[in-house]
Design brief:
By secondary structure, the protein is mostly helical. It has helices at residues 2-26, 30-56, 59-89, 120-127, and strands at residues 107-108, 113-114. It has 4 helices and 2 strands; from the N terminus they run H-H-H-E-E-H.
Length: 128
């Protein structure tokens, strides 16, 4: 029974990673590529690690696997957000068929802060 669970988890993980690779090749711009790869690869890695935890079956391996999954789920979206933000700030264009640019005209290109993101303490410092 555990061999079936291991095979199912590993196969699903490999499928998600394969879909991420295909999506990376097929998507037209960096922003869509980030979206596809972040979601699919994170889930694929989580499933592959879960299969490793089931395969080894010890508490020490399972706790390490859970810690790795936690940190991957925590850092992957943050890293993708930062890559997307930097890509936008350095001027990498959106795909030509993109319908709407939500950030256009809403941030200061010098400070890279969104409008409305100024904090009261910064406003007080600037007014002095």
């Amino acid at each position: 029974m555990s061999n079936f669970i291991i095979a199912a988890l590993a196969t699903l993980g490999a499928i998600f990673i394969l879909l991420a690779a295909i999506g990376f090749v097929k998507m037209p711009d960096i922003y869509l590529r980030i979206s596809v790869t972040t979601k699919a690869v994170t889930l694929g890695i989580g499933l592959m690690l879960a299969s490793a935890a089931v395969y080894f079956g010890t508490e020490s391996i399972a706790s390490r696997v859970l810690a790795i999954i936690f940190f991957v789920f925590l850092t992957s979206p943050v890293g993708a957000h930062l890559i997307g933000r930097v890509s936008y700030f350095i001027g990498i264009p959106l795909w030509k068929n993109s319908l709407h640019d939500d950030l256009k005209g809403k941030y200061n290109p010098i400070t890279h802060k969104l409008k409305g993101q100024e904090f009261p303490s910064e406003e007080v410092k600037e007014s002095k």
